Amino acid sequence: MRENGPVTSATGTPESPASPDLSTSLERGGSPFVPPRLIATDLDGTLLRDDKSVSPRTVAALAAAEEAGIEVFFVTGRPARWMDVVSEHVHGHGLAICGNGAAVVDLHGGPGTHRFVKVRELARENALDAVRLLREAVPGTVYAVEQTYGFHQEPDYPKLHMEVPDNLAPAEALLTADGPGAAEPVLKILAYHPDLDPDAFLTLARLAVGDRANVTRSSPSALLELSGPGVSKASTLALCCAERGISHEEVVAFGDMPNDVEMLTWAGQSYAMGNAHPDVIAAASGRTVANNDDGVAVVIEQLLADRA
Hints:
Helix 3 runs parallel beside helix 11 and helix 5 (about 125-135) packs across helix 7. The longest helix has 14 residues, at about 125-135. It contains eleven helices and 14 strands. The radius of gyration is 19 Å and the shape is globular. By secondary structure, it is an alpha/beta fold.
């Protein structure tokens, strides 16, 4: 989940392909082209421009995809309450996968009335274990707790999210069975370190936490996101596709950060943005131009042209 502010690349400014040959990247490993039935796109650094807007070209491409019978899923690390940036652009089903796969949300109700369709929570026991293990392995880490509706943080957790937390307390107190928000499921833990390199922090955390939680990151700072074991954008997207009878070969996915890697690997066709993290470029089967150059729209337009 990116901080809710201006977006910067996690790796400086990778060279963006000026005019990628998308026609050649519509095949994967020499296998026949499979017409897509679902487009899964990340938001920050991918569908959204750096100013958090959705360009007119991208709006038109999303509408054209839905008109052609291709479902569009927004798949993001953002919580449901941060989905206002795309709520007016939903078509058809209006579903989004939020919190890196921790929740499937119906956006039809508009801001403040989003309905949770599916929740894949992080058990409090796992969350407490993960916090303990990470505190021991990486001193100086501070935490916040993301729930379906609530947001709580430690006093030293920085103001990254442009919002006022519901409670300030140590993570251990926030995660007790009778702690703040005890009636709500925990979607993920946010772990921040003020000094470490983001990728180094991710590696250390994955080694420390092990199978107690799924650890990833989407921020240009050393901010990690801990979800339930096995919970990721990919696994929740796979569940949603299975419910619709859609195979992974019929999915086209877009992303730019490490929390997108599993989804891009799973999808039959996948595109790293021109501004993507190196791990994302390695995982994707294709590459498009940067988010500020409407890279998602560029690919959708080509896909629709190929169907014509």
